[in-house]
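Section 5: illustrative case.
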């Protein structure tokens, strides 16, 4: 009885979360959303740059002795139950390997890695130590995407998927005034992997891989351009990718040149279609028997499960062993995403279609 009580009390305590890296601008949103959340408690920050630590210490509500410029020292001193990563994409393997060595679940911002080789480092570390790894996308938590999945899978109302179109982009990192440290690596082809192709192309690759039940495409064809070389001298700011499956096509549009932010997904099947719009709360569908397109708003879309409502609830659930990373957040999906992105980068570079082996 005493043991059961102690276990219950421990489970009721907030998950102790440390943040590894502060160069990714999404850390500001994570800190804002973490305030007042009962599932987690922030216990430490790591970044090699003392200036970034000082910048985020107050929003995190942490004293100076909880700020670290050495990742291993932070993990060993604080012993967090989970780590949220906000480094450049290039540094993801380093963080995962350090966390896996200590069996600490880790979540990172999309995409998983800048190359297949880097993704394999992450996969090997996670598998070797059985450490959960989560890849966070804003679009994972869109309720309309969950509704699209049901239309094409358990319900099968729209039939087999024939074409998918993902449109993800905004005006550009510089144009929307991202933090200087964020812009510095987003515009670096080594640390980001590419430009808009990796930054926004990953959304479509992630969703299409999920909708296709982790089926790898047969071929990848891409074009990438730099429309604003005065800003993005070393990376693309406009990219289009075509994925060929045995009985379907995927079209990924990624941009840092659009007049407004978009994260829209269109899925066309044998008997119907679904169009999920930015923000996750609106869905347009047409199915057999419909005389016109039907519009479903927020009130018509089921809520996501409590443990998968957003990245914070999901990280807490994974850290406590309630769920295992899977689907849009899981390694199986995201290994394929990186394979697609790497092939797209090579296709754009060589003007050739890349056949996936």
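Designed sequence:
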């Amino acid at each position: 009885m005493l043991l059961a009580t102690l276990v219950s009390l421990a489970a009721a305590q907030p998950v102790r979360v440390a943040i590894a890296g502060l160069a990714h601008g999404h850390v500001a949103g994570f800190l804002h959303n973490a305030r007042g959340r009962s599932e987690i408690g922030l216990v430490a920050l790591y970044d090699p740059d003392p200036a970034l630590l000082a910048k985020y210490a107050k929003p995190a509500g942490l004293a100076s002795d909880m700020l670290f410029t050495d990742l291993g020292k932070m993990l060993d001193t604080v012993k967090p139950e989970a780590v949220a990563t906000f480094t450049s994409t290039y540094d993801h393997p380093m963080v995962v390997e350090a966390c896996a060595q200590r069996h600490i679940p880790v979540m990172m911002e999309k995409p998983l890695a800048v190359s297949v080789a880097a993704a394999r480092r992450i996969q090997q570390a996670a598998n070797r130590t059985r450490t959960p790894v989560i890849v966070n996308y804003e679009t994972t938590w869109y309720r309309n995407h969950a509704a699209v999945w049901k239309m094409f899978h358990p319900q099968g109302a729209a039939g087999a998927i024939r074409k998918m179109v993902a449109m993800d982009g905004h005006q550009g990192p510089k144009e929307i005034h991202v933090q200087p440290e964020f812009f510095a690596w987003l515009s670096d082809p080594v640390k980001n992997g590419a430009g808009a192709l990796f930054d926004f192309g990953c959304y479509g690759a992630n969703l299409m891989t999920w909708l296709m039940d982790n089926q790898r495409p047969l071929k990848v064809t891409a074009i990438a351009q730099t429309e604003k070389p005065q800003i993005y001298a070393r990376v693309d700011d406009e990219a289009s990718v075509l994925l060929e499956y045995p009985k379907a096509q995927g079209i990924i549009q990624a941009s840092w040149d659009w007049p407004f932010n978009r994260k829209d997904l269109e899925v066309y099947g044998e008997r119907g279609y679904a169009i999920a719009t930015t923000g996750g709360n609106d869905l347009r569908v047409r199915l057999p028997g419909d005389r016109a397109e039907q519009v479903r708003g927020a009130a018509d879309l089921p809520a996501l499960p409590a443990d998968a409502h957003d990245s914070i609830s999901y990280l807490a659930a994974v850290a406590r062993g309630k769920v295992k990373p899977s689907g849009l957040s899981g390694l199986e999906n995201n290994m394929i995403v990186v394979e697609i992105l790497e092939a797209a980068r090579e296709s754009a570079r060589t003007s050739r279609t890349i056949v996936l082996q």
